[in-house]
Amino acid sequence: MTMSAGARFAALGRKREMDGDLGKPETAHAILAETLVETSMGWRPVEELRAGDMVHTFDGGLRCLASVARAPVTSERPLGLIHVPGGTLNTCLGLALLPGTRLLLDLPELTLPDQAAGGPVLVPAGALVGWRGVTMRRARAGALAVALRFEEEEVVFANTGALIHCPAAGQCRDGGDMAPLSGFFAELAMDEARRRLGLPEELPGRPAGLSGQSAYA
């Protein structure tokens, strides 16, 4: 009997589910536990997903998860998380994000010169601090991050309205969280995104102990 594509991925995925730390490529640019992700079985907490599950993507329809990595949110340095209020990104609930996680945003002020017809761009979540109620808070002890990986880079739906970029394996190996990730979407760096949104370079509401770029490295 021939295995379906989903069954093949599930079998392979059992070998690819892993623990890690957020300094390693397989768990960089992850989604925090309790975030709801749209799947073929409806909206599910990201921590419940497994390799082989089918997930709705922004421009590719349903795609099969190739691997899932999990890691606690820990750091040798204090780590801030980005908190987006419910409704700000058309979400049903508030959303917590790692600062380097890319959001796909379609805002006129972020349109790049070579996007004559406009279109969405990837922006680090940390660039939104101070915009429409977005704040930075210290990560709570025991918070879990889950990295979803597909055969190719994809953008998934989170908490109904947010669009979160999931780089393909190998796209985040070098250069840290702020290195370009996408081979398909236009992308803005932290400082440029903040400038275009009319935000000051200095981040407001940074938790004590967080300074400079330490929250994003």
TrEMBL record:
Residue ranges constituting the Hedgehog/Intein (Hint) domain according to the UniProt record: 32-159
Pfam families hit by this protein: Hint_2
Domain of life, per lineage: Bacteria
Family matches, as InterPro entries: Hedgehog/Intein_dom
Protein name as annotated: Hint domain-containing protein
Species per Swiss-Prot/TrEMBL record: Tropicimonas aquimaris
